Amino acid sequence: MSSLIRPNPNIPSIPQPVADIGALTVVTQFLKQGVDSLAGSRGKPGDRAVTFNDLVSIGLTGIPGPPGPPGAVPSVLNISSLTASGAAHVGSLVSTGAAQVGLLVSTGAAQVDSLTVSKAAKVGALTALGSLTGALIGDGSGGLFKSQPAGFDANAIYRMCTSALVTNYDELRAVVTNQPGSTITNACAVSGYVVNNAPSGGDTVAAASAVALFGIGVSAVDNAASWGMNVILTDNTAPVVSTGAGRVLFGAELDFNVTSPHTLVIGTSLIGASLTAPSLAIAHQVYPLGPGIPWTVSFLSQDGGAINALIAGQQGSGASQPSQGIILTAVNVNNVRIPVGIQQAIDGTLTFAPQGPQAQLTRFNVFPGENVRIRNTQINSSITGVNIASTNDANTAFGMLELQGQTVWLSGAEIIMDGAGPVTFIAQQAPVPPPAGRYRMYVDNADNKLKLVNSAGVVTIIGA
After folding, report:
1. Closest residue by Cα to residue 444 from 426, 456, 457
2. Could you tell me which of 5, 11, 233, 295 has the fewest CB atoms within 10 Å of its CB?
3. What is the C-alpha to C-alpha distance for residues 101 and 301, in angstroms, rounded to an integer?
4. CA distance linking residue 372 with residue 401, whole number of Å
5. C-beta of residue 364 within 8 angstroms of C-beta of residue 386
6. What does the alpha-carbon distance between residue 417 and residue 439 come to, in Å, rounded to a whole number?
């Protein structure tokens, strides 16, 4: 069997040095012949030694750097694929194929077609270029990070929320399993941490803004739907009815820790840079939790939570704009929707306005024991009935409609005092005469008599 090692014919066998001038001369000559051959100054070129620079010139390694840990490649590594069962330490990594390593540490840039790291990847800059060129037709990810190799995979967690067959493609997929006994504060699949040291000039200036989590979605073709964020939470590991207790689901929590009275806080801001009005725009939409399962409260402002629970501004910009409306919708016995809008007009009048040809506001109900007090406001209404009591129960106290210092217009309406509820007048001075064709009724504080005054100022005593 022939040996794989071929002796270099230009390097003679070097004899053992002895304490003799002639013998040392021969050893020195043989050493010089060997060094000349390895250096390429004598013999065949193929017999010379391969230097580290030779490896750099053919792209097998880079310029030597500082000594690294065991298994380290000091500088640039250009390869078609990389497989390392242990750690790979490189200055920078360029792989046109797949890179599979136990631990990757790159002080420079890492550019790979695909990267699988079973432990951790620490790189100065990572560029992962996939090989997909067509439609996404199967489950997969461009980069996968799992806290535990044997833990749940992404679709196993997804199927805890739905019985439907789901497949996702995630350019970056992170899966975390928070096991019992964990002592960390939060187990986060994806997180962003930003410190902004660049003044941006205010809440409306986009320059130098700091964003912990950012994304852009584009519906580029007809009938395409895009979501900026879509989160599913469940209280069970399977989509079946359970009896678990003490489980809490928070869709979103925004914490604001303010330390300065000069700080502006905006909880959520819905804005845009649209060029045209959409067919329908709903800023906040609430659906049932499930078929026949409504939310208990759609919007709740806790005690002390806000000075104003709701402010409805004007409908448009500029002068002579009414307020934005609030629409209440009911369905009558004929299954007809009856929407009624509440709106403030440009003269300050608060209007209860029916919406649509089928709508009509028939009654304004005050429940037993409750009062309606209106001060310094004119009521102009076409209400067909004013119901101050909602029941004929003799043991129930009637409500009270108290009108102080204003005019009540009931155009073609009827006031029904259902039961023994009294009509009370507070004695006052004679009022200003009303417009033509109208009368004002009052109790004169001079003689405590009920009187009518017309537009001409003629006073008539009622029941005199």
Report:
1. 426
2. 5
3. 53
4. 5
5. yes
6. 21
Residue 277 in tokens: 């009005």
Query: Per residue in 120-161, pLDDT tens?
Result: 666 666 666 667 778 888 888 877 888 877 778 888 899 898
> Could you tell me what percentage of the chain is helix, strand and coil, using 3-state DSSP and rounding each to the nearest 5?
5, 25, 65
CA distance 116 to 359: 64
What DSSP character marks residue 202?
A: S
Q: Are 91 and 65 within 8 A, CB to CB? A: yes
Going by the DSSP 8-state scheme, the letter that residue 46 receives in this structure is G
- Give the SS3 label for residue 56: helix
CB 77 within 8 Å of CB 61? yes
What sign has the CA pseudo-torsion 263, 264, 265, 268? negative
Report d(CA 66, CA 399) in Å as an integer.
Answer: 89
What residue has token string 């002592």?
A: 183
- Give me the count of residues in the chain: 464
In this structure, how many other beta carbons lie within 10 angstroms of the beta carbon of residue 450?
15
- Of residues 114, 102, 184, the one with CA closest to residue 149: 102
Q: What is the pLDDT of residues 424-434, one digit of tens each?
A: 777 888 888 88
Element (H, E) at 36: helix 21-39
